[in-house]
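ZP: hey, is the zinc ion complex queued? I don't see it on the tracker
AM: it wasn't, my bad. submitting now with these inputs:
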Amino acid sequence: MSGRTPARVCPVRTCVGCRERAAKDDLLRIVVIGSECVPDDRGTLPGRGAYVHPAVVCLDQAVRRRAFPRAFRAQGPLDTAGLRRHVEQTAQ
Ligand SMILES: [Zn+2]
């Protein structure tokens, strides 16, 4: 096969951390269960999703600017500790 790739339109989402657009496949989908942000690795969990690069820097930016409560229209703060741990593990 040559280096040519078929011109397929792939879905693009905006990272809530750095606000850059990226292919959906390159971003981690986040959903909220209860008051906790959880990673949706397979993209199968129902409900509203937010997208972030699977990188600690992007996650921290998102947390700092309260992007998750805004994205999920949450009334209170959201727990991102477990999500951060997940990103730390997968980013390496
Ligand atoms: Zn990002």
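AM: back. The beta strands are 12-14, 21-23, 28-33, 36-40, 50-52.
ZP: great, adding it to the tracker
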